[in-house]
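Example 3.2
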Amino acid sequence: MRLDYLQKYDKNFPHMDLTEKIRLHALSRADLEAETLALQTQVKQLQSQLASATQIAFYDSLTGLPNRHGYDRYVATLRTLSRTSEFQVALDHGRGGGLLIAQVDIDHFKSINTMLTHFGGDAVLRDFASRLAKGTRMNAAPPDGPAKGAMNRCLGSLIVEQYMVQNGMKGSDLISRWGGEEFFCLFPLCYRNQHEARAAYDDADKIVQRLMDRIRSEPIIVPVNDQTYENIKYSVIGNPDHYYQSAKLIDRNGKNVALPISASIGYAVVSWEELMSHASEDTAHLFRNVVDLLRRAKETGRNRAVTVRAAAHDNRAAIHVYEGRALHKTTTAEMLS
């Protein structure tokens, strides 16, 4: 071995004892290459184990979506980004936009489990989660997705997406499953300055409408066994008292049920200042309001999205409800009645 290499080795690893140094100095080039290869293999194994542990810790095993821990990690990462000078300058000191928060709940999911058993319920959850995930802007089709082009996006939006991906996220938007049929969605809304921030509410409405349209785009096809098939045929289809009376049975290439699906959504826009003002361990505050809005959507008929925000003309609270046709508003008094 070259003397200069050994001297450099001794200098860089002074903590090794003499016996270890003598052993390493005696190694041939082939021995060193073999040890290097073994270490590289070990590193790859550790990286694979870390990836598996991360998947278990932060992602839901049934749907593949981030779980509660994944949600907390996302919010913590986003909060760290929102406090950086780069982000604040891009968004006019953090006042250019906010964070869309939506709670999504499958309508009458208990009836699905009763009708299809938990195996069918799991199939519905997987399909439903896939539809929500396709509603993120990274996965959206033109003109809402990346194909729209970076020229039409503000710097803050690009900073968010790049930062989140660098920190292990799958994009700027988050769709997470909290358990059962309950999902939370977070969409950062970034604008060049605070004067454009009012557009966040309109963009939030459009994003939620796209989610609702995607959820209800077509029935979910679920395989069922003979007994479940017969039970649905005689006790569900055409039964005016059953929520899924319009389900259809398919027996081509095996027995299936085509289940029309709908969901209720409560959503709101939180300012960047509010996101930064709360303690890092307090992530629950972000969805306290949308829980009440989801309850309102359930109580007023389901299959709708509800939000409350200040009306631009007189600063009174107004409720916005999307039912598949258009967004319409109700005054606060009507909302509370």
